Amino acid sequence: MAVKRIAVLTSGGDSPGMNAAVRAIVRYGIKSDLEVYGIFRGYAGLLDEDIHKLEFRDVSGIMEKGGTFLRTARCPEFKVTNVRDEAAQILKKHEIEALVVIGGDGSLHGAAFLDADHGIPTIGIPGSIDNDIFGTDMCIGVDTCLNTTMEAVQKLKDTASSHERAFIVEVMGRENGYIALMTAIITGSEAAIIPEVPVDYDKLSDRLLEERKRGKINSIIIVAEGAASAYTVSRHLEHKIGYETRITILGHVQRGGSPSAFDRSLSTRMGLHAVQAILDGDFGKMIGLQANTMARVPYEEILGRKKPINMELYKLSYILS
Ligand code: ADP
Ligand code: F6P
Known about the structure:
By secondary structure, the protein is of the alpha/beta class. The chain folds into two domains: 5-141 and 259-302, Rossmann fold (3-Layer(aba) Sandwich), CATH 3.40.50; 143-255, Rossmann fold, CATH 3.40.50. Helices cover 42% and strands 18% of the residues. The protein is elongated, with a radius of gyration of 22 Å. It starts with a strand and ends with a helix. The structure holds adenosine-5'-diphosphate and 6-O-phosphono-beta-D-fructofuranose (F6P).
């Protein structure tokens, strides 16, 4: 039987582009004769029945906005089977026949359980600045985040050069070093310290000193929060290199901002494909970007799998700095 009523929610850490995905889902859904409901505040809002019908014009002017107008939440109790059962009953009561979940690895686990164990067909869309979700080359928000880190580090380089200082810049990435590694590459920084690769502070400080001898007047080290704090890195390096260091923690500024052109287009494509999968009755999958095409990846192929860091890129960051 064809689905008539669907819902969408955003969950976990927000990421720029989530709004564009919601807009595409609402508009393509309505144009395909579906009723589309927005669930506010992620799984927490679902349990509170914070569910509202969305019309074509409700999503006007949201594509260019950062964050998520549906808002988001963390809802740890959603890991409990009985709680998800309750959520499934609420969706059934509202006659919602399919759910699109936009979020990170944790949120997609919730979607997979709803689909497999609680009789709620779901489609996932990967939204996380960490780019740590298996089965997609890029997640929503990554590109905008990297534009933000790039601009910030570029500005730090100006003042680092003037004062001939080293800067330790801490970026997000609790579990992985993608943001740190890419930021180091696109800013020509000296090193990326990431959770995937142990750091040798003696070697690193020798390199920094060597570069100074060759005439380099600034040094920028990017560290992922999951590898070490900027303070720890500074403590290890400062007494070895013998010149001043300064610390910058970029923090949540990395999660905000108007989405980049890439993120707007990626999110829009993913939103459209999520609705198309629903229309095809093809559930239990995440929409992923693979070699520039939209793929429908079964949850069991992605969840519980760690996306490895690209070691070629890691080596590249050293060769070019
Ligand atoms: P993200 O989705 O950005 O990775 P979290 O890991 O905080 O963020 O997960 C967001 C929400 O997804 C959690 O607060 C919880 O409601 C739900 N969730 C996370 N892990 C699971 C799980 N193993 N089973 C069911 N729901 C989960
Ligand atoms: O999952 C994205 C992320 O930005 C991580 O890189 C970061 O550690 C975490 O979220 C911080 O989340 P919050 O401060 O919202 O709990």
